[in-house]
Q: What sequence folds into this?
């Protein structure tokens, strides 16, 4: 099987950072995918599964293996259920829900990336999570070389995690969402309000990969709920203290390293302002974790994938 060679990782991700991948393959059918995995194994090539590249920091050194992108874009609607391939963009999925008067994805208005990537990390915002709508997920196990179908309760969804992210051996092929009939105009209004909020609050004028750190679960750090801290608490979907607040209180807004900067607008975003390197970003991540731990006793956990 032919693979593309010398593909620049910076062109595959929204951060525009990263070296070269030795090999790259876009799989547009399940047969493509299976054959590619088989070939990679025969060549003893490590392989990495890429979604939309919207929450990943690629290495400056590149990748000596195969970057495999499942680009399944099948979409169908039956009643109140939508079945979508892993390569479908979240924007297209949300628009389809509006067109079919189906409620349940309003929280995802403006969410970047692909459906498969969102499922893998159980994406969420504004109190909603993708797991809330999942009925079944079809995946391909690269160790057993067979398809696996799971109901929602078998996917082990948690806060920004799933069995697919924990295991690392399964490639999401497609999934079915069970939504609720509603008013298309009302759904569209809610979606547009989320898009507007993101445009106002997020630093979208610069290359970024979204929120760098997970919000901080109040249950793990109950002292943050003490009145002395005056920390805001929101449902995400359980009580959390926004990491952006902790970073701001640690005086990290606008702190830069090389071409990367902790956004003055939203400090849980690191932005690429001047041809930043992955090393620049990693330095800021370590600084943020160190400062927040020293000031609040909180161990920040990355939401992004560092590759």
A:
């Amino acid at each position: 099987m032919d693979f593309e060679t010398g593909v620049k990782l910076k062109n595959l991700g929204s951060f525009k950072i990263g070296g070269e991948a030795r090999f790259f393959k876009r799989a547009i059918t399940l047969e493509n995918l299976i054959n590619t995995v088989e070939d990679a194994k025969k060549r003893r090539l490590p392989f990495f599964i890429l979604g939309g590249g919207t929450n990943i920091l690629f290495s400056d050194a590149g990748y000596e293996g195969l970057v495999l992108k499942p680009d399944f874009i099948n979409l169908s609607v039956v009643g109140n259920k939508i079945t979508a391939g892993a390569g479908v963009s979240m924007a297209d999925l949300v628009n389809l829900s509006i067109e079919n008067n189906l409620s349940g994805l309003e929280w995802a208005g403006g969410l970047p990336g692909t459906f498969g990537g969102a499922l893998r990390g159980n994406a969420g915002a504004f109190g909603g999570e993708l797991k809330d709508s999942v009925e079944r997920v079809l995946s391909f196990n690269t160790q057993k070389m067979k398809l696996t179908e799971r109901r929602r309760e078998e996917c082990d969804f948690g806060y920004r995690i799933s069995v697919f992210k924990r295991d690392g051996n399964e490639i999401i092929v497609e999934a079915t969402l069970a939504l609720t009939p509603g008013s298309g105009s009302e759904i569209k209004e809610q979606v547009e309000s989320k898009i507007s909020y993101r445009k106002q609050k997020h630093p979208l004028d610069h290359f970024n990969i979204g929120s760098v750190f997970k919000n901080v679960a109040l249950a793990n750090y109950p002292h943050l709920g003490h009145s002395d801290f005056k920390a805001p608490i929101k449902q995400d979907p359980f009580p959390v203290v926004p990491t952006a607040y902790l970073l701001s209180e640690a005086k990290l807004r606008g702190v830069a390293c090389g071409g990367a900067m902790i956004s003055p607008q939203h400090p849980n975003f690191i932005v690429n302002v001047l041809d930043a390197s992955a090393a620049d970003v990693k330095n800021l991540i370590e600084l943020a974790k160190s400062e927040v731990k020293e000031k609040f006793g909180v161990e920040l956990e990355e939401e992004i994938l560092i590759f």
About this structure: DSSP finds seven helices and 21 strands in the chain. The longest helix spans residues 278-296. The radius of gyration is 20 Å. The CA atoms of residues 149 and 209 lie 30 Å apart.
